[in-house]
Amino acid sequence: MIKTPKIIERKTHSQIFQQAKMLGLTDLQAKLVANRLDDAEHMHAIVTPQLKNLQPPSELKNANQAAQIIAQAIQGSGQIVLATDYDTDGVTSAWVAKTALIDFFGVNAQRVEHIIGERASGYGITDEVVDRILAIDKPIELVISADQGSSDEPRIQRLAQVGISVCVTDHHQMPQEGVPLSAVCTVNPQQQGCVYDKTIAGCFVIFLVMAQVRQELIKVGYLSSDAPTLKSLACNVALGTVADSVSLKSPNNRAIVRAGLQQINQFTIPAWQAMRQLNDNNKQPYDAEFLGFQVATRINAASRVSDVTTAYHFLTATNVEQAAFFLQQLDEDNQNRRAQQEEMLTQAKDLAAQLYHPERYSLAIKMEGNAGIQGIIASRIGEKYGVPTVAMTDLQDGFLAGSGRGIVPEMDLRAAFQWMSEQEPQMFKSMGGHKGAAGCMIPLERYEQFSELFELAVQKQLPSAPYPLIETDGALSSWQLTPQLIDEISALEPFGREWPKPLFSGRFLVDQVKAVGQTKVHLSLKLLSEDRQRFGAIYFNALHNQGDALPFDSGDWIECAYQPALNNFMGNTSLQLRLSSAKAV
């Protein structure tokens, strides 16, 4: 039996509310801030994020050393190889590094080679990636990893043994044994002794490193003192940061995402011009939610069902026609991904229903299908049951690939995997990730053991069996539910992990309700507030299957959680309530 989600209200910190008001915020804005902050230490930087307030790159441990190594490679004649992950963070990391090297530092494009790992081969600098690097028939000056490398000492050692230097830039949790000893330098805020923000994405790390490279090149006279800054690279650092679901309560992440969105919404870059042609977001500016759900999903689809280099070519397109060509391929990949996802989700729902009981702390589901989609499955199933979830697929080579989602805010998935590996050293062929999302590969025959150990690992971290909760910012009055509400809320953008988009609770009378959409699992509603104001509403995925009975009828009172949104229809703009949970009362 699935537990019905509890709708609870976030705690409003009264002192923070008063301090937020002193910044000139409205009562509602101050309440939203006070619902999200425990202290006021960085409140101004969080509420009004700016690049000038970024933590200095010099505070990123080994960034100066990496800058000297990369600057020396730039002044050499050999190949500079970029080895990056295959997701949006990895692709944007490659874009940042390559754009900086070629467009800002003047490196001949023929000297820069980019190797993206294959999702099928697993995360990180794999043996397959090493083989591709060793197959390069030109002298190699330096290999720079981005968004990976911290856990790849054996493969980095293979390169070091033939005289190839590797500079690691990454943001994932460090292995217990520490930095890869065979790397000439490791830049990762997670490493011991680093005081930099631990929440930044891989693309942000390489952005900071390249900013230090610029300073080093100026220092040695390779660049003039007035050489352009790398500020214009913020657009795709913002994309990678949002896509990787890192904390958007971090002043650094907020600043880079806000600056990046400002650049994106100028639509001067071919990739973003092409995206605007495909989806104009109802003529509203792109926000962090759009980057996550409309752009990152398409980029990630490339590695899941097709060729990840399509995504890289899209970002690096030199004109809008070229960008549109690659975006069309990404869109087709995404449609293919969605079809596969629905098939796998049906399979996962059946398996989860067999495994789950109310005292269960976790779920580990073994499926057949595309390994690239399992992260989405883990999110959907985990959110449905309210428990940390790992979705695993059979690679048909004796191994299972798994993607996990923490779901519960207190859960640290990477620490759970580490504990499991200590209990059973032969459990993992590979693993990586961070607190909220992690991946692994295990021998097929160890699935049952993995499932049992994962349950124990979660029990060690959580005081009781997790319960699906929906946190809201409380109720709004009818007079507040106007299109102007969106502007008031949007002033606190960007929203994302740890700085969630406002969600409100309410009690409404159902005036009309009907199943809509191609699959007839969404509900379109007309709702009446307690003072009889009428609002349109949409409840996505309200039904499990087409033809299911409606959960409530006209004349029923419902308690719901909803996000306000704009609905443009026939030239008219009105406020629409997007329900995330609703039950008859």
Average pLDDT, to the nearest integer? 93
Broad structural category: alpha/beta
Oligomer: single chain
Q: What spatial order of strands do you see in the largest sheet?
A: 3-2-4-5-6
What is the count of DSSP helices, taking H or I runs of 4+ residues?
18
The unreliable regions are: none
Instruction: Tell me the total number of β-strands.
Output: 17
The portion of residues forming beta strands comes to 15-25%
The biggest sheet amounts to:
5 strands, parallel
Distance between the termini: 20 Å
Secondary structure: helix percent: 25-40%
Shape: globular
Describe this structure in words.
Helices cover 38% and strands 19% of the residues. The protein contains 18 helices and 17 strands. The longest helix has 36 residues. The chain is globular, with a radius of gyration of 24 Å. 46% of the residues are buried.
Furnish the topology, listing elements before pairings.
Blueprint: E1 6-9, H1 14-22, H2 27-34, H3 43-47, H4 63-74, E2 79-84, H5 88-104, E3 112-116, H6 127-134, E4 140-146, H7 153-160, E5 166-169, E6 185-187, H8 202-219, H9 234-243, H10 251-264, H11 270-278, H12 288-305, H13 309-315, H14 320-355, E7 363-367, H15 374-385, E8 389-394, E9 399-405, H16 413-423, E10 430-433, E11 437-443, H17 447-461, E12 469-472, H18 484-490, E13 504-516, E14 522-528, E15 534-539, E16 557-569, E17 572-584
Parallel strand pairs: 1-12, 2-3, 2-4, 4-5, 5-6, 7-8, 15-17
Antiparallel strand pairs: 8-9, 9-11, 10-11, 13-14, 13-16, 14-15, 16-17
Helix pairs in contact: 1-2, 4-8, 5-8, 5-9, 6-7, 8-9, 9-10, 9-12, 11-14, 12-13, 12-14, 13-14, 14-15, 16-17
